[in-house]
Design brief:
Elements (H helix, E strand, L loop, with lengths): L3 H12 L2 H10 L4 H13 L5 H34 L7 H14 L3 H4 L11 H6 L4 H26 L6 H30 L16
């Protein structure tokens, strides 16, 4: 069951409408699944438009990841190790995210969104590595859109039983993580295949004078 404190915060977000969904995902003091699940429930009551809620969710989810990207870009690893606990980012999150980013490259920004542990912190090594912000936003939005639609839809379907959303989706997260890993491996193979071989040109000496 969800605690009374979380319900109070969710009700407060709901009273703000679309801005509440955006703010709830931007600060993420409550897991995004619950914010979106409750948002879907509110949509089902006719208090919000579904696509308006999707837009707010995508904007909030993207902004939350941009904050972590900028923290990595401007503050670096020492800053996040010192202050990450205040935004629920632990050292092991950072370590796992760094390992994934170094191993799989920028493509992991999309796929890691569906994998536990690393999905919350994967934006940090992207910022530290000075990844292009526009490329980062593209991959992030591409992942946030299906995540937002999924949980808003489930919340609307479940109705008053929306609180069961985590229990219902948990069995499907492992297959989703497996699919993400397969996608990463295919991406790596494609990159290797499409990268032209490096041709080494030997330095030639001078021709002898005639």
């Amino acid at each position: 069951m969800i605690s009374q404190l979380i319900m109070t915060i969710l009700n407060w977000f709901a009273e703000m409408g679309y801005m509440g969904i955006l703010l709830g995902l931007m600060v993420e003091i409550i897991p995004s699944e619950l914010v979106l699940g409750y948002g879907g429930y509110v949509v089902g009551q006719g208090k919000m438009n579904f696509w308006g809620a999707v837009l707010a969710g995508v904007a909030g989810g993207t902004m939350a990841q941009l904050f972590l990207y900028w923290a990595g870009y401007y503050g670096g690893r020492p800053f996040l190790l010192k202050y990450g606990k205040y935004i629920l980012i632990k050292e092991n999150h950072i370590v796992h995210a760094e390992e994934w980013f170094q191993r799989y490259g920028v493509g992991v920004i999309f796929t890691a969104r569906f994998i536990p542990v690393v999905r919350h912190a994967i934006s940090i090594p992207a910022g530290i590595a000075r990844m292009s912000v526009w490329k980062f936003i593209f991959y992030t939005v591409a992942a946030v859109i299906p995540w937002t639609i999924l949980f808003l839809t489930l919340g609307r379907i479940l109705g008053e039983n929306w609180q069961q959303i985590r229990e219902i989706t948990e069995p499907y997260l492992i297959p989703a993580a497996g699919f993400s890993l397969i996608f990463i491996m295919l991406y790596i193979l494609w990159k290797k295949k499409s990268t032209p071989p490096i041709v080494t040109v030997k330095k030639m000496g001078r021709f002898p004078d005639k």
